[in-house]
Amino acid sequence: MSSGAHTVGVIRGDGTGPEVVGEALKVLGTLDVEVELVEFDLGAERYLRTGEALPNGELERLRTMDAVLLGAVGDPRVRPGILERDLLLRIRFELDQYVNLRPIVRYPGVETLVPTHTEDDVNLVVVRENSEGLYTGAGGFHRKGTPHEVAVQESINTRHGVERIVRYAFELAMRPERRRKLALVHKTNVLTFAGDLYQRVVDEVGAGFPDVERDYVHVDAACIYLLDQPSRFDVIVTDNMFGDIITDLGAMIQGGMGIAAGGNINPAGMSMFEPIGGTAPDHAGKATINPLAAVGALQMLLAQLGESAAAARVTAGIRFACSKLHSMRAGQMGFSTGEVGDLVVEGASA
Ligand code: IPM
Ligand code: MN
């Protein structure tokens, strides 16, 4: 490996993960960037074979990567929650990938379920807190299995955790490609402790960013605005669970889960990028899955590694593929996973 090369870990994972990662790597292979790929055998197969979702040694090996590209994990043969918690969430937490960055962009020609949106209406980024909230697993049962059972699921919100995610969001709002608007999305009228902390931190940190316009939107109302007036949003900062939920809605207004990409970012460490759509078992092995979300994840990965020219090529490739698919769609059956990847390659090399 030459000194300039990036070491990129690859977790192809389950379901359609390997297919979409294959297309992203096909695109990567055509770019002028020095990358050494390191494969990680993680996911359902490994778990079923060994009983371990993420051995400690693999976690330590992941830590030494410059970045990781993940397909998807989850499999009907594994009890729900195991791979999600012990593999995906464990990587996010242990590697302190505290930002879940989910851009919601609409590429030219992509149709969505909302006919009133123009293509330009949808251009925002959700900054989802990714290391605490309701996802830490804090809580427990009391009198489990009895009529008097108590189930407690605690939302952990630390000053440190809230402050760093809010600061990240303000800094993002100041970047040249953004519009200097930040909305806190929460439920401060009901979640009066966690919401209060978030609002105070937004006000305090925001005082240091006088050029960023601040907004507050309750999460339920945010669902309305994402449909009714998405241009209201530039940067959204929100907690782990609200961010999980609204980014599925966000994916739909950008054209579907097949196109939505995200990054689990540790600004001072190792970041992992993934299509946010999951394993799509119905599509597995049929070459019918849209690989653009995985290609979008590659685009984010390259940007994070500082390879901005290569990242820009991938964006050009995605845009080209989207407009091509649009103009060829009428009367067609659709496109195979590999054909979409080929269109990206064509557009990226133009
Ligand atoms: C996501 C997923 C995960 C999450 C699940 C699989 C644990 O829904 O990345 O949005 O909730 O974060
Ligand atoms: Mn989700």
- Give helix % range: 40-55%
Largest sheet: 10 strands, mixed
Give the strand order of the largest sheet, numbering strands 1, 2, ... along the chain.
2-1-3-12-11-4-5-10-8-9
List low-pLDDT spans.
none
The run of helices and strands is: EHEHHEHEEEEHEHEHEHEEHHH
How large is the count of helical segments? 11
Overall radius of gyration: 20 Å
Descriptive key words:
single chain; 350 residues; alpha/beta; ten-stranded mixed sheet; two-stranded antiparallel sheet; globular; binds 3-isopropylmalic acid; binds manganese (II) ion
Written account of the structure:
The chain is of the alpha/beta class and 350 residues long. 41% of the residues lie in helices and 19% in strands. It contains eleven helices and twelve strands. It has helices at 17-29, 44-50, 56-63, 82-94, 159-173, 194-206, 219-228, 240-254, 292-304, 308-329, 337-349; strands at 6-13, 35-39, 67-72, 99-105, 123-129, 139-142, 150-153, 181-186, 213-218, 235-238, 261-265, 271-275. Strands 2-1-3-12-11-4-5-10-8-9 form a ten-stranded mixed beta sheet, with helices on both faces. Strands 6-7 form a two-stranded antiparallel sheet. Helix 6 (194-206) links the parallel strand 8 and strand 9. Helix 1 (17-29) crosses helix 9 (292-304). The longest helix is centred in the last third of the chain and has 22 residues, at 308-329. The chain is globular, with a radius of gyration of 20 Å. The two termini are 29 Å apart. The model has no long low-confidence stretch (mean pLDDT 96). 3-isopropylmalic acid binds at residues 84, 88-89, 244, 276.
